[in-house]
Amino acid sequence: MEEITGAQIIAEALKAQNVEYMFGIVGVPVIEVAMAVQGVGIKYVGMRNEQAACYAASAVGYLTGRPAVCLVVSGPGLIHALGGMANANMNCWPVVVIGGSSDQNQETMGAFQEFPQVEACRLYSKFSARPSSLEAIPSVIEKAVRSSIYGRPGACYVDVSGDMVTARVDRARVRAAPCCPPPPVSLAHPKAVTEAVAMLKTSKQPLVIVGKGAAYSRAEDEVQELVELCGLPFLPTPMGKGVLPDDHPQCVAAARSRALLQADVVVLLGARLNWILHFGLPPRFNPQVKVIQVDICAEELGNNVKPAVALLGDIRNVVSQLLGCFRKDAWRYQSDTMWWRSLKEKMNANERMSKALAAHSSVPMNYYTVFHHIAELLPHDCIIVSEGANTMDIGRTMLYNRLPRHRLDAGTFGTMGVGLGFAIAAALVESGRKTCQRVVCVEGDSAFGFSGMEVETMCRYKLPVIIIVVNNNGIYSGVDPHTWDELGKMGDLTTIAPPVTLLPEARYDQVMAAFGGQGFFVRTPQELRSALQLCLDDWERPSLLNVLIDPASDRKQQPWVSPELLIEC
């Protein structure tokens, strides 16, 4: 009789499901689980906070299509991971969280870190369960992995009591579960596809919106063929950037407001009509707009705006269906229409405005100057991780993505603190693929503060991530050192200092240097270019550029959309 522990069963079950990465923070009762997964060849990455660990695991799921695991201790450890689970669910990214819990014979007795973990996780996951026995562990883990990637992807939770981790059972009694196959893909109803094609052919001002669902479904080749075959303008959502290159001649991101406002037919590919797309409603959208909605989730169809045509199915397959129709009966939207001229006019005007702001040579720099110089030096194939307020919004427009799944940001949930966890995940995935693609994490100084200690994780594992902290001394805006000193002379800063302010000119670069990475303190465009080039040349360690900008720097003035403009649609 060969006995096996619960920790070994968990490790072998995860290995059987082709799990490659585990992120977490160990402690009682899950130390043995982390050791066991390493024993079967799964990479374990020790993080500094459970939130960041869960963010990293979910990013691996998005980048690879297969979930990674977040391992946490009981009670507070799991509670810290709930933010990552909620973020994964909102983003529709697969992740499996395994949480240790108090021993079964101590339930309701006030055990160490006792908490109703299975019940709590049901609010933040697609599936939440505790195996009833050691023998049942493989089947529960298989279901968690399968549930995380089937249908609309999301988070799943498996609870393991402390006594189950170390308990032993005869290996012959354990019910092995084979690896779940890739998710089944579905096609839209042929009649609906025909209706969508007919509607597109009669549109006067069409627009394709490419969401991160198209990126997740690996639909980049099909979407690009559809856009180019039919001559359609397209607009990517923030993480839909790169499905088609941002510098593609048919990308109208620089005329986003006009494109959304005046389009008469919108093809929605794996994007939701939520806050990111202004709910699809006036005054940001034409009230008569016809929406052709393509989504994998039936419940999503019709949210906020009833679609003129609903195409339920896998994005890649549904776009292939549309292509089949256009190949049989060719149609192309002409490039000399008033719609194309209007979009290009607005794009050129916005680009001129951004270039004018970027050309400012004054010090401290503004956002546009910083991003102009960064954009000139970044490799075209790098993965860009971005979070912050203005840092993320302006960076989205100026830092181009040319490859799919090469932008990670605050996402649907608008979560701050995701950046460093995402960057660690991307660096590990790229290292495993041996693609030599750089990971560049562009952060606001406030956003960096949420998970800044993960720079130690980067240094420990020698991950050559480049972090660029765009430092304006605050949340949205800050004050300069002189103003801060004057505020201090006026009395208690807790009653005087604006709530948005942070310590002026904080030395975030020294945090990185303290752990053995490179740190650069940057004030001028020349210093920025020199430091960034040094970082790009160094593949041995992580780097951090602490880039000081004008605390009052802001986005260019955004257009106010008058309801009267809708008449022109």
UniProtKB/TrEMBL annotation:
Q: Where is the Thiamine pyrophosphate enzyme central domain?
A: 193-322
Q: Supply the Pfam families for this chain.
A: TPP_enzyme_C (PF02775), TPP_enzyme_M (PF00205), TPP_enzyme_N (PF02776)
Name a GO CC annotation attached to this entry: peroxisome
Sample GO molecular function, one term: magnesium ion binding
Provide the protein's localization. Answer: Peroxisome
Pathway listed for it is: Lipid metabolism; fatty acid metabolism
Cofactor names from the entry are:
Mg(2+); thiamine diphosphate
- Thiamine pyrophosphate enzyme TPP-binding domain residues: 388-547
Gene Ontology biological-process entries: fatty acid alpha-oxidation
Record key words, sorted = Fatty acid metabolism, Lipid metabolism, Lyase, Magnesium, Metal-binding, Peroxisome, Phosphoprotein, Thiamine pyrophosphate
For this protein, what is the EC number? 4.1.2.63
Q: Where in the numbering of this chain does the Thiamine pyrophosphate enzyme N-terminal TPP-binding domain appear?
A: 5-118
Annotated membrane-spanning segments are none
Supply the InterPro entries for this chain.
Answer: DHS-like_NAD/FAD-binding_dom, HACL1-like, THDP-binding, Thiamin_PyroP_enz_cen_dom, Thiamin_PyroP_enz_TPP-bd_dom, TPP_enzyme_TPP-bd
What reaction does this enzyme carry out catalytically? 2-hydroxyphytanoyl-CoA = 2,6,10,14-tetramethylpentadecanal + formyl-CoA; 2-hydroxyoctadecanoyl-CoA = heptadecanal + formyl-CoA; a 2-hydroxy-3-methyl fatty acyl-CoA = a 2-methyl-branched fatty aldehyde + formyl-CoA; 2-hydroxy-3-methylhexadecanoyl-CoA = 2-methylpentadecanal + formyl-CoA
Q: Would the keyword Cell inner membrane be found if you checked this record's keyword annotation?
A: no
**Primary location group:** other
Q: Does the keyword NAD apply?
A: no
- Family assignment from sequence similarity: Belongs to the TPP enzyme family.
Quaternary data? Homotetramer.
The protein's name: 2-hydroxyacyl-CoA lyase 1
Q: Which organism is it from?
A: Scleropages formosus
Q: What is the lineage of its organism?
A: Eukaryota, Metazoa, Chordata, Craniata, Vertebrata
